[in-house]
Request: fold
Amino acid sequence: MATNRLNVLLSSLTKCSNAVSEWFQQNALLLNPDKTEAVIFGTRQRLSTIDGTQGITIASSSVHFSDAVKLLGVTLDQTLSFDQNVSNVVRSCTYHTRSLRHIRPLITADAAKMIASSIVGARLDYCNTQSASCLVQQHVT
Reply:
């Protein structure tokens, strides 16, 4: 039952992506299927019942499902747990705050704290606003 429903949904998604590709061509735009990613969102229990090895066809090219996709700098995994995104943000913040050591002797302690706070705050705020807008878009559509 779940497999039939998935096949119907994948067929519908393929038709939709073909329509988008056609619209792109009619408006002198190009859809690059090599840079296109796809992911199936769901609970772990639901995802375990789905055969995620198949993919969808976009612009006559097969696109396989990924475990996660990056959308506007935010990594969305299959279960929307944001674990991978948190790891990416922590890695980025660590890299940039550690790079402050190169200029630390040239600035005051207050300036260093302000720069470090700005580095971390900007990445956290960006993730929160982008994640919230992505989730709102998913619930609306």
Notes: Helices lie at 2-26, 44-48, 83-98, 109-140. The longest strand covers residues 55-58. The beta strands are 55-58, 61-64, 68-71, 74-77.
